[in-house]
Amino acid sequence: MSQLLAPGQELIEEPLPDGRRVYRSSIALPAERPDILARLGKWAGVAPDRVLLSEPGDGNRCSIGYGDALRRSRAMRQALAGRYGLAKGDCVATLAPAGIDALVLKLACLSGGFVHAALPPFAFRDGVESDATKLFVEAAKPRLIVAPAGHAAIAGMGAVSLGDLARESMGEAAMPSDADASPDDWAAIFFTSGSTGAPKGVPITRGMISSNQSAIAAMWPFVAETPPVLVDWLPWHHVFGGLDNIFKVIWNGGAMHVDVAPSPSTFEASVRVMAEVSPTMHVAVPLGLKLLLDRLENDHAAAAAFTRKLRAIFFAGAGIDAGLWRRLADFRDAHGDFQILSGYGATEAASTITLSPAPLERPGELGHPLPGHRVALVDIDGRSELRVSGPNIAPCYLIEGRRVPLAMDEHGFYRTGDAVVLRQRSDGMPVFGFDGRLAEDFKLSSGVKVRTGPLRAGLMAQCAPLADDIVISGENRDRLVALVFVSATGRDRVDEISTRIAGWNAANPSGSTAIARFDLATAPADRTKGELSDKGQIVQSRYLRNHADLFEALQAGGGQAPKGA
Q1: What is the 3-state secondary structure (H, E, C) of 166-213?
Q2: Is 47 helix (H, G, I), strand (E, B) or coil?
Q3: What is the pLDDT of residues 419-454, one digit of tens each?
Q4: Which GO terms of type biological process are on file (predicted)?
Q5: What own/partner pairs with CB < 8 Å and gap ≥ 24 does 420-424 have?
Q6: Is the model's pLDDT at 248 over the cut of 60?
Q7: Nearest to 29 by CA among 290, 240, 208
Q8: 558 vs 189, 490, 516, CA distance in Å?
Q9: Domains in the chain, start-ordered, CATH in brackets?
Q10: The model's pTM
């Protein structure tokens, strides 16, 4: 069995005269970083019939191999150029969900040097020009919009049907090669999820893709030595699924089996697919992990089938609560020979900034910088902001048709807006740990700063597994109030939630940590109103704006005081 992680990984500190702390990985970024299409061509040559991607079909799954993917993408490139007049650098915007035709379109854009822009489906659900869609269209400036068959945008915005485009390109002769490309050429545009503000377009270069995948394989050799097999539902309009995961598969000659978004009603089918294909890696966000554990924790046969060839479960380290972590760790200990890994990233960094150098010991571990990158820790009002420089950083933002600089500091480091701490693991290895989003912090009327991220994490741990999320309010007020999103486990245990919050207050009595009053959410966060990110997590700033009257009522004495307070 191949080695899971590169041995001897160390965090190298480079203290600078101006007081900044700069860190890098001891693992070097490979000098040879071929274009992603060269990697596709390699696998199409040595294993043309190997499944690259499969999708749900009518009763059976449909699949495409590496050889067909290369041939069909070059034929679609010809159709885009010949029938629609696209030239290198032109943008093709798409609303298509993950699948075979969507993959061929993505690869066709790479083949022709077109820029593939992944549009978020919620904003375009009505398929008409509106204030919601204008932001994305003006940023990407597409020459062509492609939508699934029957989508409202086909009539409302003049979009081309992806099914029609796929059929048209079947009659085209495949180009014998791909357009000339350089690492600085734009390959894609993704939009930030909006978890810290309005979404912005982020151009991703071909060099960013190559450096990202080369660095991941250098830190985690198992993804290169054993071609990854993923059962994946993450949306392709988000950089996690639509850039990192699919290109991780192509880079390393693996297979992606597209799954439907997880829900209690669909997860049985997902378990069957996992048993059939035996994933080697499971990439998830908290929502998917909860449903996975709900289904597998008490079904030994299904758990054994899922973990048969599993090497790692991977999630974004900032996004998992303590209760879910304990469940995941218990599942790991009970089933299979796999490890839990995490990472941290941003759309502006082609998805990845840090990765685990060793199996996780606790939630919140972000790991070490990606090879070839440097991370700076800069003091911001008593906390350390993580800033990053390296080949993964995007050239600019796209806003209202203009190129706008990223938030860079005077030393050329991208400012993530996230706070981190440097932690020591039990084995003595230092790693970065998530310490909240700086943009979510606020001050009470007393001027005392509230560290929202650590406060929410602490309360979630205190209330686990009775709460799915907690939103905290109190900016420019005398006290803190909270809205609790109760989990299925906590639905009939409201008094216990109240007692646990009182226990938190007893241990954390200061005005910046104690919760004076709380209430229970009566409805889930609304994704269509920007209250839920693509990762399934509540966007606190947006939720507070949308429900200001609810929190005003809590400040005025609504809800309830924690029992014992």
Answers
A1: HHHHHCCCCCCCCCCCCCCCEEEEEECCCCCCCCCEEEEEHHHHHHHH
A2: coil
A3: 999 999 999 999 999 888 888 888 888 878 898 888
A4: fatty acid metabolic process
A5: 420/366, 420/377, 420/384, 420/385, 420/386, 421/384, 422/377, 422/384, 423/365
A6: yes
A7: 208
A8: 45, 21, 11
A9: 1-35+218-440 (3.40.50.12780), 441-555 (3.30.300.30)
A10: 0.88
